[in-house]
What we know:
Layout: H1 3-15, E1 23-24, H2 27-32, E2 48-51, H3 55-68, E3 72-75, E4 92-95, E5 102-106, E6 111-114, H4 120-128, E7 132-133, H5 146-152, H6 159-162, E8 169-176, E9 184-189, H7 201-205, E10 214-221, E11 223-224, E12 231-237, H8 240-252, E13 259-264, H9 265-275, E14 285-291, H10 295-311, E15 316-319, H11 323-341, E16 346-348, E17 351-352, H12 358-372, E18 375-381, E19 386-392, H13 398-417, H14 433-439, H15 442-455
Parallel strand pairs: 2-4, 3-4
Antiparallel strand pairs: 1-2, 5-6, 6-10, 7-11, 8-9, 8-10, 12-14, 12-15, 13-14, 13-18, 16-19, 17-19, 18-19
Helix pairs in contact: 1-3, 8-10, 8-12, 9-11, 12-13
Flavin-adenine dinucleotide is lined by residues 36-37, 73-81, 84-85, 96, 116, 138-140, 144-145, 147-149, 151-152, 154-156, 209-210, 214-215, 337-338, 425-426, 462, 465.
Amino acid sequence: xxxxxxxxxxxxxxxxxxxxxxxxxxxxxxxxxxxxxxxxxxxxxxxxxxxxxxxxxxxxxxxxxxxxxxxxxxxxxxxxxxxxxxxxxxxxxxxxxxxxxxxxxxxxxxxxxxxxxxxxxxxxxxxxxxxxxxxxxxxxxxxxxxxxxxxxxxxxxxxxxxxxxxxxxxxxxxxxxxxxxxxxxxxxxxxxxxxxxxxxxxxxxxxxxxxxxxxxxxxxxxxxxxxxxxxxxxxxxxxxxxxxxxxxxxxxxxxxxxxxxxxxxxxxxxxxxxxxxxxxxxxxxxxxxxxxxxxxxxxxxxxxxxxxxxxxxxxxxxxxxxxxxxxxxxxxxxxxxxxxxxxxxxxxxxxxxxxxxxxxxxxxxxxxxxxxxxxxxxxxxxxxxxxxxxxxxxxxxxxxxxxxxxxxxxxxxxxxxxxxxxxxxxxxxxxxxxxxxxxxxxxxxxxxxxxxxxxxxxxxxxxxxx
Length: 466
Ligand SMILES: Cc1cc2nc3c(=O)[nH]c(=O)nc-3n(C[C@H](O)[C@H](O)[C@H](O)COP(=O)(O)OP(=O)(O)OC[C@H]3O[C@@H](n4cnc5c(N)ncnc54)[C@H](O)[C@@H]3O)c2cc1C
């Protein structure tokens, strides 16, 4: 069957089990649904899109695609930065963003149950009404979905103290294939605080990037809402590497701020030029720490962090007394990526190194970028050792693009050599496939391939990713 005929047969079969408004075949709309936010990650041409509203509709899509041999690319909000939600040729892009309900909030047991398309900030707001808190806070929280967060094991700003998405997923429902029939629903995990019955299959799905099945419901662990106002400590450093030294020393001293973020001057300038937040970008790099320990212990922790910053070479480090100013700095951190995107295509790196190696990795980033003549700006979840050098290229400059791509790969090798990983939180997707193969040992790669073969022998779920 030719690809056009196959696409027609697929659309006909899909339409037999779906209300008319769920199917997308308009080429422009389909093209917009066919890529995430990763710059230059290749995307194929999808045969169709489906905007599912129920689990039964997801089941129909999975059964149909498995029967006709069409791949499925699940999609949340498309804010991914690795190409994970990019279409592959002839696929169905399965958009889960319309399945966005918070189904249950259980304050007695600190648990909520949500659909995969629920937006992270909406879940936070819903549980906050019950005095509860869902901590994982990717900077994309206003847009990204819980399904996407689960599939990428998203991190964020407060992971340093409160952990990543994986630490909050107790259980989930997914439409799967493999050992059960394609299109069957499985319930994985639990809703109790503890539980070791069987292998941790819910955990296996976290970070699996849509390659094992389609997540249709998630049971999340919650915490009580934090009491009191956090303290913000700001340190201004002459350069990136000295800010990295401060990160390493804060870790070594056993200080655990809730947040420890880094922004270099290029980021501060880009945000200021765009949003006019009133930030004075005279430093080479800023470290932003947030301490949420209440009372005297919190005050002592904040003072110790400021002193450590000064000891590591900060020009100044102080506890912010101005809430508006502190908020503006955190806004700058969240807005850095879109602010830099205004300057041209941005290739986003996501390496993670042991925290003692942060200064060395920052040195390597500077050296590699200089060698390739690439313009970079660096933001980082520095306290986690998770660095995001952003490679900025002038629009339409193919030589600059090639240089950026070469530097990107060298960053990966430098991170591996320092005992780190090629992706701390954005996932492998398409952009890190080669890097992952350079990082993992052959046995680990063989086990991963075997798991995927067992759970998806027909290669229906997001093939070519991860
Ligand atoms: C401005 C900005 C800031 C960001 N900051 C952070 C950050 O601080 N931390 C961080 O970790 N990431 C960050 N990201 C990256 C991105 O937001 C996260 O990877 C996020 O988890 C993706 O969610 P999404 O809903 O957009 O998923 P998508 O991009 O749509 O999909 C991501 C992956 O999940 C799969 N998927 C989606 N839904 C399902 C489902 N229901 N079942 C199975 N698979 C599914 C897709 O196939 C794909 O592989 C940022 C991105 C941007 C643009």
